[in-house]
Design a protein that fits this description.
- With 632 residues, this protein is α+β, with helices and mostly antiparallel strands.
- The chain folds into three domains: 165 residues, Neutral Protease Domain 2 (Neutral Protease, domain 2, Orthogonal Bundle), CATH 1.10.390; 326 residues, Sandwich (Immunoglobulin-like), CATH 2.60.40; 85 residues, Immunoglobulin-like (Sandwich).
- 24% of the residues lie in helices and 30% in strands.
- The chain has 14 helices and 34 strands.
- An eight-stranded mixed sheet has the order 7-6-10-2-1-17-21-19.
- A hairpin with a 2-residue loop joins strand 26 and strand 27.
- Helix 11 crosses helix 12 and helix 12 crosses helix 13.
- The longest helix has 21 residues.
- It starts with 8 loop residues before the first helix and ends with a strand.
């Protein structure tokens, strides 16, 4: 029972005047204080969904390109239709010329940065000294040359008049470039195999957040692009087999009758069909003709990019799932690739059932020198072991969801792309390798390497731009995956998290979400304020150290005194052992730290406590596990 206190006028006035200062002090220091997010607008709603007036630009491409396999040159012309859905007039457009990363004068080559290493993989963004770059021969509109300025990997094109809202502009561009043997880890050629990407001038994103997103491409940051329709014609020597983003429009001209029949059967088949078998690969009979050239025509809708691969020596396996054609194309000597079609089929099914149905006509995996890179409907993959091949193949196909469908800005927020993708990979790996030592342990990889990468004074926040990240493997891939896994299982629970994450994926399909949109949507869908979680994991390098300080006898039973000695707050799991051998595990929500860094758990029901352990499953990245146990 509380005594009623009647303050004097002076003490009451003092208390009132001190209250705002005290509240401000708590607000400034509390780990639960609100994140400073942009104010919701009609474009981006308070619940994290696109608002009623959300808009984004549309870019449609018609491209004719020719591969000169003798000189290793790709030349083309394209017509770009740019539709301005923004509410403002645009006097100029910005485009990317990504091949200029291989030019001797590029920022990357001038800086001569060391290669980026991801465990066994190395990405040298200097193109290994290749002297390349894109030559833009002309940029025209309505028969007129347009003023243009090339600045490294970007190009500004001034329009004859500002492009009004709801209007479209059509550009005609002619270009060419020598094909590097190694294109900054994103594309390559090796012998007669070509893995072709960022091979045409393409529009930068214009949005209501930053205006033009024309951050230069210098290697570490990947791509942020607009959605649209691609109509692409590729002319190559007739001996080549081609796979690409988009649906093939003229199979009668470029495939044999038996190949067309096998592809039709494969789309309906759960078991692999050899479209080009091991004994057929590289033989003249796999082509309608070997003389001259053939032109392959593809169409893709609702995609943000276009890539292709070509080789005269491909083996080609295919199978179906739910009407989707799944394909692997690889050189006959490639080890382990007989199983790749099964891996790809499992991946498309798994992510479709867990996240969002795969929306495109086909999913194609190409074996070659590029260790791993993703493009719409088409990925480049290599892997020295079965487990590595599976993880790389699955990871690159996982990018079909993030960012090919959910188009976040990879130049600024790789954790929303690489991180989300690495996170969903964990469960897919566990499922594919279920019952094996690898399948039983792959889910702990991020936790196991935590101490190697989360080094005080060296670790950077996950919000760090990729070009500034000193450990991109950690900040873009592994730590975000650990973050999301703990959010799913230890903070929200699997069902609540999965429902919210699926809703986010569906709401932002073919759109451009920001971190604030994701935060708001997860909060509104789950019913839990998560600002404390995002602050600790994304915007700081906070470290977790939960401890059992002591156990004492209280009036109603044992009292376990806990403390949060680190700078990160998280919920806790407490395992208790009683005299007589009884055990109890208690889940303590993060609200236990609302009143500060100390919390007392009062054991219900009495009984003599003989042991207590925090985080008994060892799932948290606790930096000092020795203080998690009582008695010591």
């Amino acid at each position: 029972m509380f005594r009623r206190l009647v303050p004097t006028a002076l003490t009451a006035l003092t208390a009132l005047s001190a209250a705002p200062a005290a509240a401000q002090s708590v607000a400034d220091s509390s780990p639960f204080r609100a994140l400073a997010l942009p104010t919701p607008t009609a474009y981006r709603a308070a619940d994290g969904r696109p608002g009623p007036r959300y808009w984004q630009q549309r870019v449609d491409y018609a491209i004719d390109a020719t591969l000169d396999a003798e000189r290793n040159v790709l030349a083309g012309r394209e017509t770009i239709r740019y539709t301005n859905n923004s509410p403002v007039a645009l006097p100029y457009l910005w485009l990317f010329l990504d091949q200029n990363i291989c030019a001797p004068s590029s920022v990357t080559n001038r800086l001569n940065q060391p290669p980026l290493r991801f465990q066994e993989s190395t990405f040298d963004f200097s193109c290994l000294g290749f002297a390349g770059g894109m030559t833009v021969e002309s940029v025209r509109a309505a028969g007129r040359d347009l003023p243009r300025e090339v600045l490294g990997t970007t190009m500004r094109v001034d329009l004859p008049a500002p492009l009004a809202p709801e209007a479209s502009a059509t550009l005609e561009i002619v270009w060419r470039f020598p094909i590097p043997e190694y294109g900054a880890g994103r594309m390559a050629r090796e012998g007669s195999l070509y893995e072709m990407a960022w091979w045409y001038p393409r529009l930068a994103v214009y949005d209501e957040i930053r205006g033009w997103n024309h951050d230069p491409y210098i290697g570490a940051g990947e791509f942020y692009l607009e959605y649209g329709r691609f109509e692409v014609s590729l002319t190559l020597p007739a001996r080549f087999v081609v796979a690409a983003t988009g649906a093939l429009q003229n199979p009668e001209q470029v495939l044999t009758a038996s190949q067309r029949e096998r592809l039709a059967a494969a789309r309906r088949s759960a078991t692999p069909v050899a479209v080009i078998g091991a004994a057929e690969a590289g033989r003249p009979g796999t082509r309608p003709t070997t003389a001259g050239t053939l032109t392959w025509r593809f169409v893709a809708d609702s995609v943000r990019d276009f890539a292709f691969a070509a080789s005269p020596e491909f083996r080609w396996d295919a199978a179906g799932w739910d009407g989707i054609l799944i394909q692997t194309l690889y050189r006959p000597a490639a080890p382990l690739w007989d199983e790749a079609i099964k891996m790809a089929q499992h991946t498309i099914r798994h992510f479709s059932e867990r996240l969002y149905r795969y929306p495109y006509s086909h999913a194609t995996v190409i074996e070659g020198p590029i260790a791993g890179m993703e493009y719409p409907m088409l990925v480049f993959v290599a892997g020295p072991t079965r487990e590595n091949l599976h993880f790389t193949l699955m990871h690159e196909l996982g990018h079909q969801w993030y960012p090919m469908v959910v188009g976040s800005n990879e130049r600024l927020y790789p954790w929303m792309d690489e991180g989300f993708n690495t996170f969903i990979d964990i469960e897919a790996s566990e499922d594919y390798f279920r019952g094996t030592a690898y399948g039983d342990t792959v889910g702990r990889m991020q936790l196991n390497i935590y101490s190697q990468h989360a080094v005080p004074g060296q670790e950077q926040p996950l919000g760090t731009r990729p070009v500034e990240s000193r450990d991109l493997f950690w900040t873009a891939y592994q730590k975000p995956a650990l973050m999301m896994n703990l959010l799913r299982f230890e903070v929200l629970g699997k069902d609540r998290f999965d429902r919210a994450f699926r809703a986010y994926t569906a709401a932002w399909a073919y759109k451009h979400p920001t971190p604030a949109d994701f935060f708001r949507m997860m909060r509104n869908e789950t019913g839990m304020d998560l600002d404390w979680f995002w602050r600790g994991w994304l915007y700081t390098t906070a470290r977790l150290d939960q401890a059992i300080d002591s156990v004492t006898a209280g009036r109603e039973g044992p009292e376990v005194h806990l403390s949060n000695r680190g700078t990160m707050v998280m919920p806790a799991e407490l395992a208790l052992t009683f005299a007589g051998g009884q055990t109890e595990t208690v889940a303590l929500p993060v609200d236990m730290w609302n009143l500060g860094s100390r919390f007392t758990y009062r054991v219900k029901g009495g009984g003599r406590l003989t042991g207590a352990v925090l985080d008994p499953r060892a799932v948290m990245p606790d930096t000092e596990r020795a203080n998690n146990r009582w008695p010591r």
